[in-house]
Amino acid sequence: MELEFFGAAGEVTGSCHIVRINGRQFLLDCGMIQGSREQEARNRDPFPFDPREIDAVILSHAHIDHSGRLPLLVKRGFNGPIYTHNATKDLCGILLKDSASLAQRDAEYANKKRPDQPPIEPLYSVEDAEMVLSYLKGSKYKEKVEVFPGVTIRFQDAGHIIGSTSVEVWLSEGDVSKKIVFSGDLGQYNTPILNDPAVIEEADLVLMESTYGGRSHRERGLTHDEIGEIISEAHHGKGNILIPAFAIGRSQEVLYTLGTHYEEWNMSRWHVFLDSPMAIKASEVYWDYPHLYDDEATKFRRDLHEMPRLKNLHLTSSTAESMVINRVTSGGIIIAGSGMCNGGRIRHHLKHNISRKECHVIIVGYQSPGTLGRRLVDGEEEVRIKGKWLKVNAKIHTVGGLSAHGDENDLIRWFSSFKQKPPVYLVHGEPKSARALEQKLQNEAGTKATVAKSGEVIDLAQF
Question: Which residues contact 21 (CB under 8 A, 6 or more apart)?
């Protein structure tokens, strides 16, 4: 009965861990590594296990850094069930096919630039992504599911995106029984649309994310004040506002926030573009799960028969529609992916706006090291976009209060629900953040905390 750490140990992306029990083994997540070109090249490496010998996968949520290598896992021989929440199952149908389409387009673009060299193959195809969907088995929150004899799971709401889960895992081998809890990605408390992370009271061991260890988000009311000020400044300066946003979670919350402040922020003066086919489709999934909303969002939906209305919202699905936005030089709020600016339509909009001092860029989510978004946050004066070096004259605003991840205080609050203060292994965090949370858990929560290392194996029977 053992747990081995692979991806997202000592780093944020590429979540993947393996549990071995009763001669069988299953994965917790199988995510894409995201970041610099060198980091993303690691996705092509062989898995540190034989995919044909994996009996099942337990998927915490749909974000690509948790689900993105599932098509590759299947392509290389995995042929078992993938257990997840019903909403995650629906979202994976959107994200994985989009990820495959992007991989194919990137390969085609790269091959055009090197016609005399062997062609680059995409990481996986749309057909590979579609194959994964047949393996997905959805369930509800709080519903116990037997994975195979000796392993039972239950999904609890993690409050991160729709369908995100913390996973309770009961393990039994011979006369040894243990319970581990995998936090998945935990959301902030008191955020719009989603419920708070669920209370879990019992565990022998906790596997916990540490993305914002050592950091606190700005209070949400102050965050809204800041956004209102940015919108006002951009209006007076006659510029555009660009918001790189993850298609699932941040895009919906940004739209919700703009809608609830429509009058206060004089939103009628703006044209709002949701320039992301994936975010448009994901918003439909959010619409299909109103029973997962918090009380505030439920009330808005009941009173308005829809989410807060943005009368000036333009949903731009096609490439042609997206290209037209580049003619807008003033009065546009453009929400587009990718959330870390490493691909997608946001790069085209940055190319047209980043050197204009009257324009603004609002960063609303975590930016992994090596990404264009991280370079903007770190204040680089020039950035390379689409093969061209551009001066960064636009104002860059980091608005942490809209992050989908809980900050250090949220993480400690979630852990405080455990009655016996079980030991913790920290994953999904940069080394500095993980070490900060490690100290906080030991000094304030009174538990033993350890930063997980890739390739480390722990004996679960000892806990």
Answer: 1, 2, 150, 151, 171, 173
